[in-house]
Amino acid sequence: MLTRPSSRSLPLLAAALVLAACSDRSGLVTPDAAAPDAPQPLIAVTCTASTQDLTVRCGGTGTGGGGSSVIIGGQNTRVKLTSSNIQVFADTFAFDVTVENRIPQALGTTDGTSADPAGVRVFFASGPVATPSGEVTVANPDGIGVFTASGQPYFQYTGLLANTSITAAKRWKLQFTPGVTGFTFQLLVSAAVQYPDGYVDDHPYVLTLNPGETRTLTGSVRSFAGVLQPGATIDWTSNAPLIASVSGTQVTAAASRGFAELTASSGVRPGVYTTAVSVCQATVVTSGTSLPSSISSSDCFSSYGSPNGRPTDSYYADLYRVTLTAGQTITVTMDSGDDLDTYLLLAAPGLGFLVAGNDDDDDGALGVGSKLIYTATTSGVYVIEASTFGTLDTGNYTLGVTIS
User: Fold this and answer.
1) Among 45, 61, 82, 121, which is least packed by CB within 10 angstroms?
2) Stretch(es) of the chain classified as CATH 2.60.40.1080
3) Is residue 266 exposed (0-12), middle (13-18) or buried (19+ Cβ within 10 Å)?
4) Quick one: which of 207, 193, 225, 298 has its CA closest to 261?
5) Model pLDDT for residues 290-308, shown as the tens digit of each residue
6) CATH architecture assigned to 282-403
7) What is the pTM of this model?
């Protein structure tokens, strides 16, 4: 009952190019400034390898041709490539390379769940070029592709790469002719993401409204790399305007109870989830509340009782609102005298994600009654849902609230 998705751990659509650089130590490349996802020149970071010092260092930038709204720079800010285990064998320079995803979306997937067959491909945007003279070639690429030009060697890392995840190391080998003491090359990373044009997040997940209540809708518009897009507007639509109607950024509940779903978008950028609206009269409670009540078939259906913490018609429920200041601890009890198997849920202000829940009192004092204890991390109006463990059960209970 408490499972909920995270809006910072986004599933990710269509092919996207993400700039990366290779380094055998962190902090060698100055991160680029975050920018809106308007078309940008293709910028690659130049890497320099030494056959004598056994190092691979990346610093400075070079500019390639073309432009795309899904090409960004930023070693250590967008994608981080790290080299290790550098060795030279006669005419071969070998080293291990891992890829870390540092954008909110997963790389190597078009739907956020299944891995794209192309995986995450690190390709040579230019080079390698030998210094002071001679030739260097990529000895063991996984393939030759057309990314920003024809004939570009690449190394492919299979699987979906979630935010902050790091791939297994892959062995790269560069072959050089006699006299070569070093070489330079430029790298880019090509990977599918779910939202190549950007997305809308930080909008409500579950919104509970009293009949007739109006609320202002909020959200954030971001580029595919998670960069906020200043000035971008969000459009809202309702699938049930007779339950919850939308005008601009205002949603207004009808006089009758029920559920609706709101869809957020900003041009071609979709919301990462719909906003579930539950219209149900909530009772305001404070510390010291001891309120006799009942779960009956004339009550609202549950606003949070589905497996993903959203509305469902599988349970009846009562809603209560309580104002908490960050740091305060609330204790909520639902005492049925052991006649009704109860269930308590607590949703946070803002996005409406569940933060606590309880089936049977852990102390055992309430039997099949429920008791939850939660310390607020955010100030605002929290929503308590008093419901049942069994589907469409009914019965009496007393709600108790203590805040310390």
Assistant:
1) 61
2) 199-279
3) buried
4) 207
5) 999 999 999 999 999 999 9
6) Sandwich (2.60)
7) 0.80
